């Protein structure tokens, strides 16, 4: 099914970074992100505004939980 979003919809997102700094200025840790990817669309049919994904003002969820985790390594030089 082709789906095009044309209405604004609030999605949640968050990030968490855990970093340890050593005595010789190295940083090592993890960086994580969590988000929802959803949208809502409407279209007009014969002058009536209808929702294109089932009516009742529903939203289409592309990813209930989009999660990414990355390793972090930094070094500070003087």
Keywords, separated by commas or semicolons:
mainly beta; two-stranded antiparallel sheet; single chain; 78 residues; 5 strands
Overall mean pLDDT score? Answer: 77
User: Strand share of the residues?
Assistant: over 45%
- Radius of gyration, rounded? 21 Å
How many strands?
5
Amino-to-carboxy terminus distance: 56 Å
How can the largest sheet be summarized?
A: 3 strands, antiparallel
Shape: rod-shaped
The level of helicity is under 10%
The helix/strand series, from N terminus to C terminus, equals EEEEE
Unreliable stretches (pLDDT < 50, length at least 5) are none
In the sheet with the most strands, the strands line up as: 1-2-5
Secondary-structure topology with pairs:
Layout: E1 13-21, E2 26-39, E3 42-45, E4 48-51, E5 60-75
Antiparallel strand pairs: 1-2, 2-5, 3-4
What can you see in these coordinates?
- With 78 residues, the protein is mostly beta strands.
- The protein is 0% helix and 60% strand.
- It contains no helices and five strands.
- The strands form two sheets. Strands 1-2-5 form a three-stranded antiparallel beta sheet, with no helix packed on it. The chain has a two-stranded antiparallel sheet with strand order 3-4.
- It is rod-shaped, with a radius of gyration of 21 Å.
- The relative contact order is 0.31.
- The model has no long low-confidence stretch (mean pLDDT 77).
